[in-house]
Amino acid sequence: MRLLLNWLLSGLAVWIIANIVPGISVSGPFAALIAALAIGFVNATIGLLLKILTFPLTLATLGLFWLVINALMLWFASVLVRGFHVRGFFAAFVGAILLSLVNMMLRWLVHPAHDRR
């Protein structure tokens, strides 16, 4: 049940980001849910591999390079999902940062700290 709720929250976060960030668009709620699924899958597979391979560069940039990797993964997920579009690297970069923040805030609202056992 918690996995389903987290997926729905991620879909809502994608939809919110699409309405905030110019250059990111989603055609509807179903596309937002599929995009959330694709983003999670891409980050869990290719993103993890890239983060491992670029770890020395990430250390040299004090972790800032992970923002670039997250932007690339968001951009790549938009290639996979019809109805979810990211136009350009800058939109992907800003979108990846805001997506993380909105996701974190939504999860905090739904699962308060005393409820996380």
Note down, in words, how this protein is organized.
- By secondary structure, the chain is mainly alpha-helical.
- The protein has one domain.
- 75% of the residues lie in helices and 5% in strands.
- It has helices spanning 2-20, 29-53, 55-60, 65-80, 89-110, and strands spanning 24-26, 84-86.
- The chain has a two-stranded antiparallel sheet with strand order 1-2.
Descriptive terms for the model:
mainly alpha; two-stranded antiparallel sheet; 5 helices; 2 strands; 75% helix; 5% strand
State the separation between the terminal residues, measured CA to CA: 15 Å
Can you count the helices?
Answer: 5
Count of strand segments: 2
Q: Which class of secondary structure composition applies to the elements?
A: mainly alpha
Number of individual domains: 1
- Summed over residues and divided by their number, the pLDDT gives a mean of 91
The Rg value, from CA coordinates, equals 14 Å
Outline:
globular
Helix content, binned percent: over 70%
Percentage of residues in strands: 5-15%
Q: What's the story with the biggest beta sheet? A: 2 strands, antiparallel
